[in-house]
Amino acid sequence: MSTDLTAAASLGLASAGPAPREAAATAIEPGTPAFRRARLALFLAGFSTFSLLYAVQPLLPSFTEEFGVGASQASLALSLATGFLAFSILCAGAVSEAVGRRGLMFASMAGGALLHLGSALAPNWHAILVLRALEGFVLGGVPAVAMAYLAEEIHPRALGATMGLYVGGTAFGGMMGRLGMGALTEFASWRAAMGVLGLLDLAAAVGFLLLLPPSRNFARRRGVNAAYHLGAWAGHLKNRGLPLLFLTGFLALGVFVGTFNYLTFRLSAAPFSLSQGQISLVFAVFLSGVVASSAAGSLADRFGRGPVLTAGVLIMAAGLGLTLLPALPGLIAGVVGVTVGFFVAHAVASGWVGRMAAGAKGHAASLYLLAYYLGSSCLGSAGGLFWTHGGWPAVVAFNAGLLALALVAAGLLWHRERRAG
């Protein structure tokens, strides 16, 4: 979600480049015009990618009304995009070794914006789903490559701050994509709202291309060594701890996306009967999650990753329970709890992968992100079946079961951490 790229940053999705001294000698220095241009360009990349990806979430009730589909089918507009994004991330990093970083990121941003415009003009529901799936696949080129560009081109002493601005762009884009869609649909149709966002992000792609300095530390490689990549992924799956972290990301994002997907339906129905614009304001709670993810790293360093990861899952569960309250303030408090708990759990799990992986950390990162987005895609849509047949209590029960599995995984990881300590 809004810290999807926090995972990539902490996991180290950079690929092999020049030796550290050589790279530092040609790196973009902080304070220079090139440095300011690079920071702004990467902010635009993060904003564009995640505003496009998650803009449809507040529009799900509109899809059910116009196309006569159920809640689970409506959620496919998001789930297909995140699912195809997952597989795209898995291979885009390797492809960028042969075609280059800057060009691939621009193509991903521009292609995603054009496909978003196509979705706004699509004549029927199936055309929207096809275009959204293609949009997710195309957008995978940005998160898979952006961190590698930053690690290769930015001077080490400014890398952390630049990463932070990029991740801030993803957080801002994810939130504004949701808020903007809800606000625009108060005055225009959802098609017009999607069209405006598509044009805005197409302009962001052009700005990105004009601003981002060309790579100076990237060495293009011919071909893709499939055997090497397959061997690296297989090696990580044999690690006893890493699959538990992959499972945690899968379950946590599945619960998080599922909660927000069907919360829009609950808030638009009686007794709340909120408008699209009012519902979109709920996504402002993402700001609490950004703060929580920043604090989670410090807490994990102080108390250990296992306890903080477990606490994040428990906070999600407590917040989920509060969403059953009939009063709107109590429900919003529950949404804040789910958001804070998710960001804590995700921040700890994503950072732990990089520390646990023995070599080929970028491949471990791609596996985590694959599981992470598949959780959004598969579990986010599965929750719609529970909404259709049992309403919000059934959605809460389903998500509670998923969190119980996440709690078991967190407990096992905590046990491994204690034994290793």
Automatic annotation (TrEMBL):
Superkingdom to which the source organism belongs: Bacteria
Localization annotation: Cell membrane
Entry GO MF terms: transmembrane transporter activity
Keywords: Cell membrane, Membrane, Transmembrane, Transmembrane helix, Transport
Species of provenance: Methylobacterium gregans
Transmembrane segments: 40-56, 76-96, 103-122, 128-151, 163-184, 190-212, 244-265, 277-296, 308-325, 331-353, 365-386, 392-414
Short name of any one Pfam family annotated for the protein: MFS_1
Name under which the protein is recorded: Inner membrane transport protein YnfM
Domain (Major facilitator superfamily (MFS) profile) ranges: 34-418
UniProt cross-references to SUPFAM superfamilies, sorted A to Z: MFS general substrate transporter
Phylogenetic classification of the source organism: Bacteria, Pseudomonadati, Pseudomonadota, Alphaproteobacteria, Hyphomicrobiales
Record's bilayer topology term: Multi-pass membrane protein
Family that this chain belongs to: Belongs to the major facilitator superfamily.
GO cellular component: plasma membrane
Segment forming the signal sequence: none
